[in-house]
Fold these 4 entries.
Entry 1:
Amino acid sequence: MMSVRRIPYQSFRRRNTHNWLLFLVRLTALALIVLAFARPLITSADVAPAAGEGAREVVVLLDTSYSMGFADRWENARAAAYEQINGLSGSDRGSLVLFSSGAEIMVRSAPEQAALRGAGADARPGAAATRYAPALKVAGGIVAESTLPRREVILISDFQRGGWRGEEGARLPEGTVLTPVPVKAAQDRANVSVTAASLARSAFSNQERVTVTAGLTNRTDRPVSGQTITLEVSGIPVATKPVTMEPGGSTSVAFDPVTVSGRNMRGTVRLSDDALAIDNSFNFVISPTEPVRVVVVDRGSAAANLYLSRALAIGEAPRFDMTTRQVGSLSDDDLRRSAVVVPNDVAVGAGLPGRLARFVDQGGGLFVAAGPRASWPADVDLLPGAIGNPVDRTRGDAARVGALEYAHPVFEPFRAPRSGNFATIPVYGYRSVTAGPETQVLAKFDGTAPAVIERRVGSGRVVLWASTLDVSWSDLPTRGVFLPFVHQSMRFLSGYSEPRPWLSVGQVLDASSGALAKGDAGQRVVLTPSGRRVPLQDEGSDVMELTEQGFYELRGEENDVAVVAVNVDAAEADLTPMDPKLIVAAAIGAPGDVEGGEGSGVPLTPEAQEKNQRLWWYLLVAGIVLLGIDTVMSNRMAKA
């Protein structure tokens, strides 16, 4: 305490303010800065933002999904679009965007109303379903590039509830006004839609027959009576039945079996007309069941093929057509007609390996059973592994098959519990196999030696089983897993997939699979239901988006034809509307008023109100300016 300097204590009862102006400037600056960091907002309902002034950038989004064709909805929607277009002033610019599952800009930022009205006059409801997100993203891109002071988006739709999935990426730029315009029909009318058709196959007198059952749903609250449903095959009505339904009810109608007389038989289940005609028909294609052709190359022993032939004879979905050939008698014609070749414990030589390599490279499948007599030349790189010496497990414990790759299609049926256990099957002999590069080991003997190996070569696949398909080396052919193992292997190697009798609008036609998969893509042409011819080389790939309801024809060389039936999305026929405020809230961050209806009635949270106000920014700038004035005044007073 001795080192602390003594300062005389002075007491003042009152200090006088010498410069009131400087004092007020400082207090005001501090108050503004404190208020700015407090981020004030105005919550009074009586305070409304001033109406925007200046030219407008207006984007009209017009729904052309097929639900807009119900009754007179489309006429009302087009009238609403014309009303918005006619309201544009001379300094405004307007855009017209037609949308359904996608969005298309018909006119962009045009000052002339005539161009907008002309584009709207040619518009019609299509066959696609409703998706709001693509339309909002397109509208957001248009208004974001605009230099006009006011930006508005008009959404005209029936607001079918299946079209909105709460997409986060559909947000419009800040300051954009989104106005939903709901469109309704002038009168409530009944609407029944054909939602599906099931095809049950059967055999009668060595002929394949199909029983068609149609599923119907009443989409309105009105009863239905007096309507009829007709089954058409190849454009000819074959049966008609009456339809009576309760409000909101569902039912099914079964028709008598139809004989499958050829490929690409076109079938349609058609209802009589009602308020929405596009969902009154359901198309499908019927073709005879095509078997998977398998050629087995053996050494002329019936015992070696006994269990394999019986397993292939049992197949129904698909059927397997098995042909037996010896090594020297397998012709090129056999390879062209077959999907899978099975060298069953044979020595492959004399030029056959090169032919099999070309067969696999062009999309064929090869299943090699490596028994005691199997061999393969080393100069032809085709197998997934090199076949080594036999391993004798007749003495001591037999080998067991384990470490199965259940994710692979060959072993996928055995994934579920109690669906088959390979580990309980003894294997008394197998060939040692050295797996090659770019191969996949699907199963192992005792968890170490490869048992099943797969390799992709060109467009085809090769599977090697390192044992026999008879009972000479294992008990596998006598166990329950043998049948599904053989069937799954043949399906996988042949590339078999269950043929789809129909597709939906919005899906893609894949010409790389099916009847014309092996053709030249440059020679294939797609004939649409409206009659347009679209060469696939113009599309730039083997796929094409399906945009029309009806039958597409895929034509290739030598008059090969594949027919694809296309139907509308049944979910779009559900005319139950959603609340447009959900879309407005997601697009601009706040619910808006709906034209022709009441206000939103949904109060904004303080956080949402604060985001729409920028009062704090102006307060902060004013406080900083006053601090600058304070500095200038203080410096001048100090010099004085």
Note: The two ends are 40 Å apart (CA to CA).
Entry 2:
Amino acid sequence: MITQPGWRKDALLKKFVIQAHPIIQTYVQKLKIPELIATYIRQDHRLKVPLEQTLGVLIHNILSSPLPMYEIAHWVGALDEKCLGLEPSEAAFIHDDRIGQALDSFYQGRHKDVFFHLALRAIKVFEVDCSQIHQDTTTVSFSGKYSGWRAAERLTHGHNKDHRPDLKQLVLGLSVSADGSIPLTHQIYDGNQTDDRLHPENHRRLRQLLKRSDFIYVADCKLATLQNLRRIAGCGGLFVSVMPRTWKDDALFRQAVRQGQVQWAHLLSRKNNRQPDARTDHYFLAQGAYAAQGYRLLWIRSTQKAEQDAQSRAQALAEALEALKNLQRRLNTYRLKSRQAIEQAITKILKEHQAQDWIDYQVHTEQAYQKHYGQRGRPSASRQARLSWKPHFSVVISVKEQSIELQSRTDGVFPIITNLKPQDYSAKKVLEIYKFQPFLEKRHSQLKTWQEVTPVLLKKAERVIAYLHMHVMALMVGTLIERQLRQAMKRRSLSTLPLYPEDRPCPYPTIFDIVRVFRGVERYEVLAGEQLTLFPAQLSRLQKQILEMLEVPISLYQ
């Protein structure tokens, strides 16, 4: 609430910023987040504001306007407290230290039980289809020094997916449903955790949550180790993944393709989800029955991936040639004075750019002699010189055009490995199941962009981990709002809503589009003496339509 004097001496104007907070609070209450936190997290009854309400305010902040933790009190001061689930007297006790203490309590409490029952609540209330689960990990990078790190999840260097190997990181694993990409389980790992070792435990948690094992577990090629696949299949689980290039079956099939022994049949045509304006992607299936380690193998060729593979190869080849050209300028100097050192440098460049199969080289040696005189100064005709012979190296670089042409025949080819039965799941259906994976990557993108999970302006390890947990909880609330609106659009046969700026059509509304539409919604109260005049929030036709589709009472804006 913002209070300012009116035009009369005894008049007082109060402005209440509402925005999209009634929508967020409605879904927070549907999920019973406050009740779950109060049940499984230890309370300090001396506090003016309960722990669950403090963390509820943090969810509102993450979804509506993520701010550094040092400005939370200023942000809360302008809002209508009731929209946040607070009483007017409680808003003054929401500040940075209170948020930090709440994060400490959340980390030290039974937060795993909170998320377990929260996922059960979401599945039950919103009838989420859990027959298909997608899993992937991302890295959360940290700048600055974090001395005295005491959390169980270690902050350390690892394979950074943000392409910042210089920064320490944590690894966040997320499992979402194919029905709306709703986060169901998540786990925060050490910064050097590899993906191949976390899948069995993650699959066990999902079995415990869903009370079933016959759901389809979809992940990238890190899932496809023989041990992982056998453990999932051994407990009655189903999986879809990509076979790694390291398996010998991959090399044998690509060799057959290059020799023209494989026939392809059109399987599917669809638009690119990541680039809607791009050309239609066509998928082809290799004819015949293939298997690897006893599991069904589908060889797919994508026209879009073929273009990407060709572009990546051309770029890598150009960068390798440029690096070799720079190397040629430095021959016979410093550390490049021997054949062994030169060959090692060339091998290192080819390996870095993965261009061993595309570039050939030859190191030539010529003998050059030098005259050495025993004294300094300009030599005279009578002074005798001593001759010494020194090798002079040169490198000839050539591109293996034939090897590049042979490799281009397998551009766009990738193998899908699964234990889904052919009579139940055709090759087209298996491909469509796997192609949902980019929607999970979009959730990771939401965490790092709209929700601004970084930079993390917290120093205590426990608070950092709890803060990441709260971001996942906020993501669940936001995805359920998105799912509800999109389902309502489908029921009403609406292909788009004018949610973008300048009322441009939006085919797939997100929580952040909804927040933007409600950004200027406010209500006012004018107190003149003993007379109170109310000015309810003025909602546009689009805003009323969204509230109706989300089943949020308009009375919350009065």
Note: The mean pLDDT is 90.
Entry 3:
Amino acid sequence: MEKKQRLVWLGFVLCMLILIWRCFYSVNYADEPYCISSVWRFYKGDALLAQDWFPAQQLIAWIFSPLYWLFRVFSGSNDGIMLVFRLTYVAFQGVVSVFVYYRLKKYQYFRIPAVMLYLLSTQNNMLTLNYNTLGIGCILLILTILITEEKFAPPTLIGVGVLTAVMVLSQPYAILMFLLWGAAVIVAVPFKKKYQLHPLLKFRTFFFVGIGAFVVLVAFVTVVLMRADITEVLNGFQYLMSDPEHQMDLHYKVTKYFERFYRYYQYQIIVAGVCLVVGFLKNHRVVQYMKVMSFLLAIMAAIHTLISHGWLSDYVPIDFICVPMMFLGISIWALGKKKNILLFFGWMIPALIYTFCVQLTTNTGILAVSSACIVASAGGVLMIGETFKESKEELSKSVSQMILFMVIAVLLLQGALLLYHRICYTWWSSPVSECTEQLESGPAKGIYTSPEDAKWYYDTLEAVDSLQAETDEPILFLDLAPWLYLYTDAPVAAYSMWTIGEDNFLEEYYECYPEKEPAVVCWMGIENPEEAVAMQYFLENGYEFTEIDGGIALRKNK
């Protein structure tokens, strides 16, 4: 056992070294620095919900603010902040993985692939802390603690409540999970005298978890109201809920969730449905034959999904290959004679509900949903392990070995593909193989990128420097450039660091916060002033138009 444990730890250390190494390559200038810019904006003194009218990221800005504050204490600027957030995320994944590994001790060897699937995955292969990566880590910790807890002591449950609140701040619609849990506890009340209820269905458990969540809620509300009064918050909230990029029709969100799941995973969904039917039929020789065929079909469907999305397709493969073990776990669980109800209803169902909550929050649809399925896939591995353990005595040695061999083959294929894409796949950035030049200044300092990308990066910084903007005067970037806000380190003159589109609230924003009116307005990557968003508004308000390398700028007359 000691030798095997050493091998496990050796594998873990090697994976961590690879993930740390990968942090130094390829730069994403949009999604990745957006979360960091939200944290920086909070650090600069802006009020959550009141002065930021974009729904994503800002609720967790105050959670990451201690990390950012510590960084600024030692650096004094934002140079290298993207690399620091990357390394911190890898450390976060490592700590979560170690904790989950120890808590899942009773699942023996199957806990290893369950943990490794999480360790090797991340949405769009964006190697940074954000609301998606933090939310997935929290839901994995919550389910692990609740499934393995024996005493359900108040301190532990309060800790779960804290994690639940952080999860909800990361994915606001995840509050549905907490509400559904409360509903299940209420429904179980009439049965507590007749049946021995599981601690998860007892009011005491739910109550202490609620206390932990309430503590975080009070802290969050206090932080918000320390910088803005309730009128400002409500005013900002109405614009926040009007964001067209995230706030889509509920019917559209729900239908697309099921439609896209079926479009990308139809074979696994069909086979899982067959397994659920066959697995609950009365025991018969014909049924045994059907179970064997269903198992083989489930294995083939999982391999098909992994190869088609992880090997043949180049459409964000690292997200899609997070899913197969989820459906395979459900299929094998259904075919087993003894079914672990706790794992199904205590892990798989909540993990699936979480993916639905992600769908309600995200604007990237099936990509974010698929990456969130990694928690359900980890649960699928545990379900397979429990089913195999319970059915092993009824199977011959050769059949048992064959089943184990096929499952391990799928796990190795999924793990290999995840590791490959974690190293090689890039999201809106240069391929790793072309990243030969290390950036020496700015938010992306320390990261290697392609020579072409590095030239564009430095040219953009020089163009921004040519504006000679004061660091204490608000600046507005009209294009998708949150990293430029980090570079200038000047107050934000926008209700969002994301793209300011044609249908914007700039005029309303400056009416609410006249001190936010920009001293300089800049749009990089555009040559025709007529194409600039809100150009007419700024010209009418006395701004002077100037050209800069790679873009345009407007300066307010003093």
Note: The two ends are 74 Å apart (CA to CA).
Entry 4:
Amino acid sequence: MIRFGAIFYLSACILAGPVHAQQVDAIDKILSRPTADPAPGCAVGVSKNGTVIAQQATGMADIEHRIPATPQSIYEAGSVSKQFTAAALLLLARDGKLKLSDDIRTYLPELQDYGAPVTIRHMIQHISGLRDWGAVAAMEGWPRNSRNANNQDVLAIAAHQAKLNFAPGSHYSYSNSNYNLAAILVTRVSGESLADFTRKRIFEALGMGTTHWRDSYQRLVPGRATAYAREGGSYVIDQPIEDAYGNGGLLTTVKDLLIWNDALQADKLGAGFRDEMEQVGVLTDGTRITYASGLMVSTYRGVREVAHSGSTGGYRAWLARYPTQGLSIALLCNSADSNPITIGRGIADLYLGGLAPLPAYKPSGPAPSGLFVGMASGLPLRVNADADGRLSINNSPLTPVAKGRWRLQDTDYLFGKDGNLIVEANEEKLPYRRVEPVETTDPAPYVGRYCGTDNPFCMLITKAANGGLAIATTGRPGLAAQPLKPAAADLFTSGAGTVRFLRAGSGRVNALHLGDSRAWAVEFVRVE
């Protein structure tokens, strides 16, 4: 069965066990795109108790040459790759060559002294506080995938940072720096690149014959699906052009990802290895988060789920394991407008039994909308309500689940009687305080040049033609002027991130903090 927009591939010879026609058709409907034109798509593999029961693919692996995707097509797995980097560190720990409790500066002395040790375990559980290198580079005018960057470039950026997002172990904040630095650490400890180490110890050992790393984006990869993004009414190529890897960059197939999942479940890398991989992070206040070693260990509709999603360029990925049911699902897509978690869980629903019902709660009373600022991150969060009382954040609708509690995917928003907000994400409870929004402000106190205390570049705040403010990077091309939109007193939002201006005792603006969810408060001091 072949049709443009939903090219469906299924061969009985690649299915082990009975073919469940109803589920196969349902997967086809989930993956299909409502278009008559050639479009990218996805490949999916499903295994049950170590036996592959379905492999399907839809769409084009290569639109230009009209090459349909197949289950054998090679995709990039984005952050699904992180679990393989973490596994390499765990193997080295088993070899006695390192301890996860080691201070990373033992192996990466280029990093600055943060006043408290950042451990290897902190890194792989994203509780290190290390700023995300991509977020910092974007402030300079080099957003991800706008230039070729390698792991040494990541180290150079990380080495400039004199401050962390937070004290090590006190919070969770997803940062790719953790895993690029981990790749360097593997090399320094083992004497081999992460690519060579994992090839020998994982990929070849488990029979993952098509899996390798994108450590050179220029290398030819036969059978690779091209990544695409939607622009206007058509698709454009959106391939990664970076050599940085370890945080992402794994080139693989759904078959190989199922082999990996089943190997973890069966502890083929050594007794207790799976439990080590699934050991979740514990914050300094005792909170057990859901992030483990490149894996999220949580529940989905009452069922235990071990999973991770991925996104690099136009590639999207999701790999999940449901241990109680013996079910694994691997999903790889080559279109940036794919939602891998939604698609993947939709497929999981076809095979999982005994799922808890979806929440059905109808709120009453005034909608708890407003502007809130994170007590830890300092970042604003605007909750909007429509005329019918439905809430949304950045155009993403929230689902009411209980009185005062709303949900967006795996994050809950709990509105208190005091008017403030608690965001529950990864089991961590983050307080937000309600602030009074502002619509306009006098630009004069803010105009000026602000240079980094941690980074060798400056930000220029100027008065825009419309009377407002704009922010740009000085000296280097890249970050063009971005409008600053007033949010609250001394707080602005922009395409470059959130800008909070700081004042001296005299009341004069003398610095600014620029930040986003992965680099919270990067400081720039005003200079004449």
Note: The first helix runs from residue 21 to 31.
